[in-house]
Amino acid sequence: DVFSENIQEHIRNSEGRTRDLTEGLESLTDHIRNIVKKESDETGDFEMVHEHKENIIMKTENKNVDLCFTTSRDQRLIDVRKPVNVKECQVMVEM
Fold first, then answer.
1. Which of 8, 21, 46, 68 has the highest count of CB atoms within 10 angstroms of its CB?
2. pLDDT by residue (tens digit) across 14-26?
3. Are 76 and 68 spatial neighbours (Cβ–Cβ below 8 Å)?
């Protein structure tokens, strides 16, 4: 039987393939860890940017409210619509 004659060679080949698979799995595990780490870092950055954008929108709304006291009714309606448009755009971008 050819298999029994070359059993040592088959064992060596099998051990080599097992070692290659083990090294490949270790490498894959390291890559996954790096991806998860980078993803959590990026999420933190997004939260900071999102929080910063909210502050800017609040400042814009406050400026528009201040303008409402000194302008005509039509101008006040335009000023009230501005923050609404900003919010709608922000929601569309976040999706």
1. 68
2. 888 888 888 888 8
3. yes
Query: Token pair for residue 44?
Result: 């933190």
What's the first-to-final CA gap in the chain, in angstroms? 65
Query: Would residue 13 be called left, alpha or beta, if left means φ above 0 and alpha means ψ between -120 and 50 degrees?
Result: alpha
The full length of the chain comes to: 95
This prediction's pTM: 0.32
With a cut of 50, list the residues of the chain below it in pLDDT: 58-62, 67-68, 70, 88-92, 95
**Alpha-carbon gap, residue 65 to 75, rounded angstroms:** 11
